[in-house]
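Reviewers asked in the last cycle whether our approach scales beyond single polypeptides. To address this, we selected a multi-component target totalling 855 residues and predicted its structure end to end. The input consisted of the following lines:
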Amino acid sequence: MSTLEITKGTVVNRRQFLATTGGLLLAFSFEDNHHAAEAQGLPGTQVTGFVRIGADESITVLVGGGEMGQGIYSGLAQGVAEELMVDWETVQVGPVAAGLSWLSGGSTGIRRRLTSMRTAGAAAREMLIAAAAEQWGVLPSVCSAAHGMVTNSITSETLSYGSLAVRAAAMPVPSAPPLVPSSAFRIIGTSVARPDLPSKTDGSAIFGLDVMLPDMLFAVVKHCPVFGGTLRSTPPRPPGATHVVPLGNAVAVVATNTWQAMEAARKLEARWNFPAGYLNIDSAVIRSQAQNLIVNGPAVVAESRGDVAGAFAGAASTFQRNYYVPYLAHCCMEVLSATVHYDGETCDIYAPTQAPNAVLGAAKAVTGLPADKINVVPTFMGGGLGRKFEVDYITQALKIGMALRKPVKLMWPRPEDMQHDQYRPMALVRVRAAMDASGNITGWAARTATPSILGQRGPLPPSGVDSQAVEGLVNLSYGFGSRLIEFARHPALVPVGFWRSVGASINGFVTESAIDEIALATGADPVVLRRRLLAADPRSLAVLNAAAELGEWFSPVPPGRARGIALVWSFGSIVAEVAEISVPVAGTIKVHRVSCAVDCGMAINPNSVEAQMQGGITHGLSAALWGEVPMKAGRATTRNFSNYRVLQMRESPQVDVRIINSGAPLGGIGEPGVPPIAPALANAYARLTGRRVRSLPFFPGATMGDD
Amino acid sequence: MYRININGQDHDVDVDGETPLLWVLRDILGLTGTKYGCGIKVCAACTVLVNGEPEKSCGFSVAEAVGTSVTTIEGLSPDRSHVLQQAWIAEQVPQCGFCQSGMLLAASALMTEYPNPSDSRINDKMDNICVCGTYQRIRAAIHRAAEG
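The resulting structure, written as structure tokens, was:
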């Protein structure tokens, strides 16, 4: 098994494939209600994937999602291989054409598409069996498929898939081929090796930054330092540059290698117009605006159940606290980049992207070319984390490519990547709770003041609620007597976007910190309190109990340490984490271990699920301990890893993961590991030190190295 | 013109002497396995071996590289047969994979000095950043490689 080389020829078109190799090509839809596969055809826009069986015995699965480390190439291909009755090692995986791709986000890649992937594999299997039966002149029922061969059970003769592929292509496509029962799974639910990994151990994997074309030029971008600012006029070409290209809010500096372009950009003398009110883009101003919003509104109702006012009026005790989280940068290991070759009639775009279809749309809009003159080649992403949905960097690369009419690679140097991100929004959230005399929570109210990701991209629905902003506040499974959740849209002009786990990364911290505080205030054990609140939700209870058991919650804690727990629902999955910490030196936290339990319905690839939990926890720990992008004078003040510290080897805890296959509908796995770790850490810290951290990060202003 | 030795081969490159080795490797020689991550010698995605020692190639000029022997990820083995590459695959270490070239080279230098490093030795010696969070698996892969 291997990944296809990502080159211009990767995205095979149907005619080309049939002309060169011959065989069976199934195009199919990933949407749940469009399972029917169609042989030999491209039946319209619902088609988002391919299974190819070549006369040369090749078996190829082309998937519409981008691989950024989350394991989508293996997860979806496992479904095809299972049904097709082939061995995992024989399957190749690569990307489909951009126009047929989907957006990689919301942790949807596998859960929304596995069934139709499996159906496609099953349809191909049935067609191969039908072809063999026809060749032997027997009924299909006496034929069976295994290991890429069809066997005649009467004569024990065999035919390989490759030898049957051309004949199979003429067979009718079964509309409802039988699927392998879960009791007979060979590949689904097993930790098969990821096909993309070998190329990630020898430098051969091609990321966006690694695309090289003959006679290519190298561009770097220099943005207006102030958000919303614009270029006054095209600046003179600095020494060492071959071109400068104005980009509205930025300038591209082009040279014959990246270093020359960066050096030339340092000497660029650009003049900018700053927008009115830019000085209000300032962390202190933004926080005081948020404070005003959570007290005075205006706010709209996102969820209302029961009589919250009555609960507070009749409460034996009440609780009220504010929680704050800052803007965060994505800082993918691979900075933003795209390579364009435009010659006036056609346009090739090589891009690390979570949204190849959006890249195609941007290319149509910028170049005016029709879709069939545009070739989008998605590369591996050196991390996506929600930033590579956006097409700002793609649009820039297209404009540069059009200005040059030569192959050109655009790169955002790290400071540009950090200072012109679309940040995880800040939020200030007020939580109020009413308790009866037994400590039961009879009323729960939360109001968030936060900028709107969706509102920066279009009109909000009539309710005025940004669903992203209240993820992790609404639809909580806790058995509160009544609840009221409100959203107050913050007007800050800082660009905001989707950051791994989005609203749950904010509100998981808020909700799970507040629950812990209430437990401590009412003298309840935090796990026992949650068990009470989850009495009607056995699935969540099982996750809570599994994490508590794995993390030895009810066993004595080693001296000098404390444990904290949190549980968050996101993207259809439930994750609970126990963090065990100490404070070896004031101003630091040592995370000794994290015990994580996850129910995503069923783990298609348990090893990948474990990896995503380990990764999500690491990512969430960096954010909780140090992550913050302070705003000052209209700018982000973060420059590089030097003042945006992230976890290193020595801080990385042992993470143990327990997977619960509950059989519930599939949930996502790329994001749900992130949200519980910040509150688990804060809850452990409060137990250890008596100090409650309600404002993240724990240690603002952290640095690593110099720049 | 600077003559540099990369993975056992001499190359003559016509660039400014201040040019970091990273960009010579990537843009001039097409050895794109060495990655740019920060440009300030912090993230270590650009790690190469210079005379066997790990060096952050974003802050190491081509002029300094003259007369040394440089190993990049492409030179670690011709066929993914290095014990660390095998261990990396066995432990399913990479996620996005972008930092792993630097990780592998740093680990190989570490194991030259300490053939069977403890966790705390690994923690002390390897400062490469991995945003995906593969650290735990890297430790496991180094132990696996050490055990042969």
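Chain B touches chain A through 60 residues (CB under 8 Å). We regard this as preliminary and will revisit it once experimental data from Aim 1 are available.
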